[in-house]
Amino acid sequence: MRPASALAALMTLPALAADPAVVANPFFAEWKTPFAVPPFAEIKEDHFLPAFKEGMARQKAEVALIAEAKTAPTFRNTIVALELSGQFMDRVGSVFFNLTGAETNPKLQAVNRELMPLLAAHRDDIQLNAKLFGRVKAVWDARATLKLDPDQARLLERTYKGFVRSGAALTAEQQTRMRAINAEQSNLGVSFGDRLLKATKDFKLVVENPADLAGLPEGARMAAAAAAKRAGLDGKWLFTLDGPSIWPFLESAENRDLRKRILTGYLERCNQGGETDTNAIVAKVAALRVEKAQLLGYKTWADFVLEENMAKDPKGVYGLLDQIWKPALEVAKKERAELQAMMAKDLPGQKLEAWDWRFYAKKVQQAKYDFDEESVKPYFAVDQVREGAFAVARKLYGVTFTEVKGIPVYQKDVRCFEVKEKDGRHLGLIYVDYHPRPGKRGGAWMSSYRSPWVKDGKQVDPVVVNVCNFTPPSGDRPALLTSDEVQTLFHEFGHGLHGLFYKGRYRGTAGTPRDFVELPSQVMENWAMEPEVLKLYAKHYKTGEVIPEALVAKMNKAAKFGQGFATVEYMAASLLDMDWHTLTTTKPQDTAAFEKASLAKWGLIEEIPPRYRSPYFNHIMGGYAAGYYSYIWSAVLDTDAFQAFKEKGNLFDPATAAKFRAEVLSRGGMIDPAQLYRNFRGRDPKVGPLLEKRGLK
Ligand SMILES: [Zn+2]
């Protein structure tokens, strides 16, 4: 039997004995649900570990067949066979990792703790398998003679480099150390996540005296009263570190002491000793990364990571950040002076502090631009905004969205939409999960339950999900979003389209470099606030009236104010990330001292804390290490890309949209991103439009 068909036999479901534990486990069965989505209601926490173990065993067997084959290695029996391995486990993993982010609980967290070291070892067993690497390398070495098409050549390159970057070419002794580092890192990662979730959810600001609510808009009061009620604090008001709770509080609450208390709670998360402190974890992870990078022959972790990105090396990143940091810091200092002047009216002689920034920024916005964020929120009911994002996609790409009622969901508030091509063909599904819950981590993200590729000659239809933490509905009022939340909804939806549109043959060429992957998301934000687009969706939730043009003009003008702050707080975190990951010593740092020195070096002003401080910088514990700069890198790309539509004088120019879908959104990581961008735009991206858009020039 040829290895490829033996593999096919192994992967057929279900392939197991009638063990009662297995019979009841949905991961061992075909899913007879609509569109074969996960049967969430049937999946229990204790199904995961046995399913993962089975998945690992199967992939191990699949890989052994490839590694031990007696026939000469070929592209098909080695590279394609590897690409096809691990499908059972991917299906389990897609459900598990989505739920641990969006709807976790102590049982799932316990599974995660047990699982992570097993998975790290499993990955190492494959990536550090000498026989397997020997065969991959043989195919790689023969690549010039193989007559591969571009997709195949890319898959080969990615597979080969993946092995080398995982340490396959190291000595046995070095590999032993690599395994130990990987195991330790995965344990540290789990511990970090658990501590951060606990520290975030543990913080509570309980207000008992209605006078302390002065300044807060009605929506924020109602939400806080509802949160208190849920927490058994009837008649009080509860504020938390969830985005929809803390940010409106900091913008509006007149009680300065309480503003200080909630912001301090936010900034000091995981930094107060005890069971939620992460300082030692952060320092240890950074040190292990240096060691790992150096084992692999790189000077720093950033050198190792950036080689695969558009930026190529730390110089490329610092070079771009430098062009934007200085003008942004200047603008932020001007903003500070304006805020200080505004504050002098209330509190003469007092110095502006971090907890005053958002409060006085809002007052300046109101005074200078006669604009109040509260005045637009009634036009941004979450369902309308979502329909607006859908409408933009329809106008650009012809795709339509229809809600699928009764489909399995993992939580009752989650909704699901079928996405169809213009001609009615089924394209995929998108789940949306928009509001905070106790088991959901902070922030907003897109991920997949099923990724598109071509399996046995048939296109696999993708299932993507957008998870956010937007202002929830309260009472009979729908969820009314802030303009920032509107942008975030469009942003995550943009990632969703990228996930839905990938048209590659292989799973192994889908991944996009970190500093390019924010282009498809951020470019969507450009449409959100265009007057022409607002007309499509920004309708008053009570009257249906379209948002008045004068209000839009005011909002867009006012949005220019505060760009110094927004750019600086974000970039400070990017610089901090880069500084952590250009360390060359494996000696663990004193986290607090390191952070302080890094931010001082860049001249960050004390009234603006970095968007994330080291102890809760979740991005850089995961895949955004030496990658948090990606948002601004991609912002250069998205602003420049959006210009392509503007230059045509039509935000929905069909030819430009078709080209963007074909050259960017459908390509995943099939070609080098710099080339991919050039194929769309006809030239390299320019920084100028971004500086102009943010008023930094
Ligand atoms: Zn994003």
Radius of gyration: 26 Å
Give the bound compounds. zinc ion
Order of strands, main sheet, comes to: 3-4-5-9-6
CATH architecture of the domain at 3-169: Orthogonal Bundle
Give the % helix. 55-70%
Strand residue percentage: 5-15%
How many helices does DSSP assign? 28
Strand element count: 9
Mean pLDDT score: 94
Coarse morphology: globular
What separation lies between the terminal Cα atoms? 66 Å
CATH class of the domain at 3-169: Mainly Alpha
Biggest sheet: strands, sense, closure?
5 strands, mixed
| Poorly predicted sequence stretches spanning 5 or more consecutive residues | 1-17
CATH topology description of the domain at 3-169: Neurolysin, domain 3
Structural class: mainly alpha
Briefly characterize the structure:
Among the domains are: 3-169, Orthogonal Bundle (Neurolysin, domain 3), CATH 1.10.1370; 203-268, no CATH class. 57% of the residues lie in helices and 6% in strands.
Question: Can you give a write-up of this model?
Answer:
By secondary structure, this protein is mainly alpha-helical. Among the domains are: 3-169, Neurolysin, domain 3 (Orthogonal Bundle), CATH 1.10.1370; 203-268, no CATH class. The chain contains 28 helices and nine strands. It has helices at 3-11, 20-23, 45-67, 75-84, 87-102, 106-127, 130-141, 150-166, 172-202, 218-230, 243-252, 256-267, 279-295, 301-306, 314-346, 354-369, 382-397, 483-501, 514-528, 531-537, 549-558, 563-581, 591-602, 618-621, 630-647, 654-665, 673-681, 688-693; strands spanning 205-207, 237-239, 400-403, 415-420, 426-433, 445-450, 454-455, 458-459, 463-467. Strands 3-4-5-9-6 form a five-stranded mixed beta sheet. It has a two-stranded antiparallel sheet with strand order 1-2. A hairpin with a 5-residue loop joins β4 and β5 (426-433). α3 (45-67) runs parallel beside α6. The chain is globular. The protein starts with a helix and ends with a helix. Mean pLDDT is 94; it is low at 1-17. Bound molecules: zinc ion. Residues 491, 495, 518, 521 line the site of zinc ion (ZN).
